[in-house]
């Protein structure tokens, strides 16, 4: 990752990405190099989440060989009130009901200042650093579908924290019911959850299996792959037409497929532009790039958040 380090340069910082199954942490050096990493299983509920973060923080300090005396950035799924440092509607973490004062709970447990942000938003900060642009959309294709928006170098959260919830844009009136209560949302077509329903596999992530089968000429796999990539392309089109960003970065768990995913999404974007000189002139496919495989984007973004 030497090529991206200048864009990540700054003081040493710590980032924690708290997910439903694991909590991952990094120590980011002044030059943007990852100095240490640690990963632990995430325990459910308020105490479980705080305890999991503390175990990762302690493991990072042990690996570095000295106390970590710096502000810690934390990325977490759910609705985050960044001013108050609270979290709600983080179902995968077992956090429901009243706002959880996560920032303050973590600061007490870790003994250092903490700043909390939505996980897709912190990933967008790292995406901005990777591509070195001030207008960036990060599209995360994971279990769900969501976008982080950086406009003029600043995160755009929206009035209710819903900016970038592209997965809940209805696109198919005859489609499946979405968990949000609407019908035919993009998330029912272009997400890891949707892919698992359309291409179930007994072992491992379905995306890799699907793309391999499609490459081998499996007709059903090709159809499932094409519809999935069409959905991703439609999300990019919507973001391009509303935000018109300088760069669009594709990431999330499904993006671990790598270059085959980018190639197919680009093909679908060009197909969408075939009947519209206007859409074609926007060059959305040319603005698209992928997060490097296995790069801990959200965790690095959390570290950037802590540093800033």
Written overview of the protein:
The chain is built from nine helices and twelve strands. The longest helix is centred in the C-terminal third of the chain and has 25 residues, at 219-243. The chain has a five-stranded mixed β-sheet. A five-stranded mixed β-sheet has the order 10-9-8-11-12, with helices on both faces. It has two domains: 2-122 and 296-307, 2-Layer Sandwich (Nucleotidyltransferase, domain 5), CATH 3.30.420.40; 133-290, ATPase, nucleotide binding domain (Nucleotidyltransferase, domain 5). The protein has helices spanning 45-64, 102-110, 119-131, 192-198, 206-215, 219-243, 259-273, 277-281, 297-307, and strands spanning 13-18, 22-28, 34-41, 72-76, 79-81, 86-88, 114-118, 136-141, 145-151, 154-155, 247-251, 288-290. The radius of gyration is 19 Å and the shape is globular. Helices cover 37% and strands 19% of the residues. The protein is an alpha/beta fold and 308 residues long. α3 crosses α9 (297-307) and α5 (206-215) packs across α6 (219-243). GO terms for molecular function: kinase activity. Belongs to the ROK (NagC/XylR) family.
């Amino acid at each position: 990752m030497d090529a991206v380090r200048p864009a990540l340069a700054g003081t040493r910082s710590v980032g924690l990405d708290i997910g439903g199954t694991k909590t991952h942490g990094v120590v980011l050096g002044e030059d943007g190099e990852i100095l240490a990493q640690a990963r632990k299983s995430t325990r459910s509920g308020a105490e479980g989440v705080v305890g999991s973060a503390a175990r990762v923080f302690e493991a990072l300090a042990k690996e570095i060989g000295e106390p970590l005396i710096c502000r810690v950035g934390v990325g977490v799924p759910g609705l985050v009130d960044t001013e108050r440092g609270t979290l709600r509607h983080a179902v995968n973490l077992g956090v429901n009901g009243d706002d959880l004062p996560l920032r303050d709970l973590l600061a007490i447990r870790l003994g250092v200042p903490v700043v909390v942000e939505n996980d897709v938003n912190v990933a967008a900060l790292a995406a901005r650093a990777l591509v070195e642009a001030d207008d960036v959309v990060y599209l995360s294709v994971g279990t769900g579908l969501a976008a982080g928006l950086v406009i003029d170098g600043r995160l755009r959260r929206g009035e209710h924290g819903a900016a970038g919830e592209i997965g809940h844009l209805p696109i198919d009136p005859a489609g499946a019911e979405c968990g949000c209560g609407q019908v035919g949302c993009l998330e029912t077509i272009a997400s890891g959850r949707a892919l698992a329903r359309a291409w179930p596999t007994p072992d491992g992530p379905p995306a890799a299996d699907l793309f391999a089968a499609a490459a081998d000429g499996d007709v059903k796999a090709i159809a499932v792959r094409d519809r999935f990539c069409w959905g991703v392309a439609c999300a990019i089109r919507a973001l391009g037409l509303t935000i018109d960003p300088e760069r669009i970065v594709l990431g999330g768990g499904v993006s671990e497929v790598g270059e085959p995913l980018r190639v197919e999404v680009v093909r679908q974007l060009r197909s969408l532009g075939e009947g519209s000189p206007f859409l074609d002139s926007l060059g959305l496919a040319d603005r698209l790039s992928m997060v490097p495989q296995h790069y801990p984007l959200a965790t690095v973004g959390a570290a950037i958040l802590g540093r800033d």
